[in-house]
Amino acid sequence: MANEVQVFNFEQMNVRTVEIDDEVWFVAVDVAKALEIKNVSDALKRLDDDERGRFNLGRQGETNVISEAGLYRFIGGSRKKEAKQFMRWVNHEVLPSIRKTGGYQAQLALRLPENNAEMVQVIQNVNKETNRRIDEVETTVDELKDRFGLPASQAKSLEQARKRHIVTLLGGFESNAYQHLSGKTFRQIGGDFKDYFEVPRYDALPLSKFDEGMSYIKAWQLPTNLALQVRDLNLQTELEV
What we know:
Layout: E1 5-10, E2 13-20, E3 23-27, H1 28-34, H2 40-45, E4 52-56, E5 62-66, H3 68-76, H4 83-100, H5 116-148, H6 152-169, H7 176-197, H8 210-219, H9 224-240
Antiparallel strand pairs: 1-2, 2-3, 3-5, 4-5
Helix pairs in contact: 6-7, 6-8, 7-9
């Protein structure tokens, strides 16, 4: 019957199960005790949201429960040598007994691995799924980084590269052109940079475009009219000398 607690015995230890929405769930603390898992909270945190839940036992209050998939994760995290025996017990006694009552749909049962080959296959599948989820998290992190722009250190690197490049283009800090045209030149490269990348500020550049932004600054050249002004001002300095 759905939501009815059934108790099974493994090596003199009770393991309670409950059927929720046609799926078998196990009381987490019972499984942890049978598998000698000391920290139940940590074990639960390692499960996905759909592998753990809460169930009201009535007078005993609410307790943590785990799905069959969560049960396997618990078994995989146990150092007890009898973990394999526990796995066989679940497959050959617990699940068949629940199915026999008619309350559990056999097609929804997860058959746990019973030998090394099956265990390796399941571990490979779990690793594949874990890697997929890691990729999703990394993609989300990259999207968030792009959304919030450059970290302060990289924004500063862009500004320093811009300054070095402008100093070179104008002939150095002491040049006549730098003294008279540095402000205009900084405004010019700033405007060009923002127009090209469609950002309001240097630090608003998406992190994924940092290298492209650095290349843009290093490749930027003075517009023709400004370049001629720089040449003339620096020639005046040479003539004065």
